[in-house]
Structure formats: structure tokens, C-alpha cells
């Protein structure tokens, strides 16, 4: 695996059924309470209500190094899950995935975003606060395996111009 991949070469695209084994493996690597592969399958079939994106490293045989699922609920983009392979963290993969997903959600009518994040996940909080998310509440013991609280973060409104100016490339 290319742990020093050039971030500009990372490819963002829609998630496909053949990606599911890698996406589920990435989720297991990233979270104590990972989603089962069937949950990702369900989200792919719910394309009117979900946006499912992946990031892949073309220098590592198209290895899936990031995954994002956004639920479209009324005018809201709810970040359901965002995972980046540990070897690729702090290289803007999550930032690019989130920006592309939020832009796509805005194009489908979302004007704001909401998410839950582990209160102790400093890296994720840094990413979300960098986008302008604000803490608006707490969900006690939301992550039951670790008995950890979740912060409820809100981004209102979505800054579409900011997202467009990130100059993302996206392949379907």
C-alpha cells in the first residue's frame, strides 16, 4: 500500500456494489461498532435518500481508502458515516470526501448538514469544525460499545460556493 500517496491523485467516485467488501473492511478497521456490509448494500439501493461515495488510491490497485454515506432527509444532509484508512489519514482524504458529498447533497436540495461524532475523536472534530460545523447538543452514551457520548454537530447553511471552490474532481 502506498502510504505516501499524492493526495491530488486520490480518486473520488460513487460507491458500487463491487466496492462493498472493501468498504465493510475499512469500516471494521475504523470503528469499534462498524456497519455490517448489508447496511452499505441497503444504502446503495436507497439512492433517492442516500449518497454513497468512496475514495480510492489509483497507485495501490484502486484500493478503497475512504468511504462516506450521507442520508438526504428533507433539506438536510445527515453524515451517516465517514471512514478513512489509517494509512491515509491527515492527507485531506476525509476533507475531499466530505466536501464532495456535501456539494452533491446541496445539488439535491440540502441546505444544512447534521452529524453525530464521538466526543473524544479529536481528528474528526478538527475536520468538521474546519468546515464550519458547530456543536449544538450531546447524545449521552450514543456509542454504547465504548460508552462514549456523541456531540451533535450542525452546519447551517451549507456554503455551496466554498465547497465548489475546493476544486474537487469526481468520477461517477
Structure summarized in a few sentences:
This protein has 172 residues and is an alpha+beta fold. The protein has helices at residues 20-30, 37-45, 93-107, 122-130, 160-165; strands at 11-14, 50-57, 63-73, 76-84, 112-118, 134-143, 148-155, 170-171. It has one domain: Aminopeptidase, CATH 3.40.630.30.
Rounded mean pLDDT is 91
Arrangement of strands in the largest sheet: 6-7-5-4-3-2-1-8
Which architecture per CATH? 3-Layer(aba) Sandwich
Coarse morphology = globular
Could you characterize the architecture of this molecule?
An eight-stranded mixed beta sheet has the order 6-7-5-4-3-2-1-8, with helices on both faces. The protein is globular, with a radius of gyration of 15 Å. It has one domain: Gcn5-related N-acetyltransferase (GNAT) (Aminopeptidase, 3-Layer(aba) Sandwich). The protein is built from five helices and eight strands. 29% of the residues lie in helices and 34% in strands. The protein has helices spanning 20-30, 37-45, 93-107, 122-130, 160-165; strands at residues 11-14, 50-57, 63-73, 76-84, 112-118, 134-143, 148-155, 170-171. With 172 residues, it is of the alpha+beta class.
Amino acid at each position: 500500500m502506498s502510504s505516501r500517496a499524492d493526495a491530488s491523485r486520490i480518486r473520488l467516485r460513487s460507491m458500487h456494489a463491487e466496492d462493498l467488501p472493501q468498504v465493510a473492511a475499512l469500516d471494521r478497521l475504523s470503528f469499534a461498532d462498524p456497519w455490517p456490509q448489508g447496511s452499505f448494500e441497503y444504502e446503495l439501493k436507497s439512492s433517492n435518500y442516500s449518497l454513497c461515495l468512496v475514495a480510492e488510491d489509483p497507485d495501490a490497485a484502486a484500493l478503497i481508502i475512504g468511504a462516506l454515506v450521507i442520508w438526504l432527509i428533507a433539506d438536510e444532509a445527515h453524515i451517516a458515516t465517514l471512514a478513512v484508512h489509517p494509512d491515509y489519514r491527515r492527507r485531506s482524504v476525509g476533507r475531499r470526501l466530505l466536501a464532495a458529498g456535501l456539494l452533491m447533497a446541496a445539488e439535491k436540495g440540502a441546505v444544512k448538514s447534521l452529524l453525530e461524532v464521538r466526543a473524544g475523536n479529536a481528528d474528526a472534530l478538527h475536520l468538521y469544525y474546519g468546515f464550519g460545523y458547530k456543536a449544538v447538543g450531546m447524545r449521552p452514551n450514543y456509542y454504547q460499545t465504548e460508552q462514549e457520548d456523541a456531540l451533535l454537530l450542525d452546519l447551517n447553511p451549507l456554503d455551496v460556493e466554498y465547497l465548489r471552490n475546493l476544486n474537487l474532481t469526481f468520477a461517477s
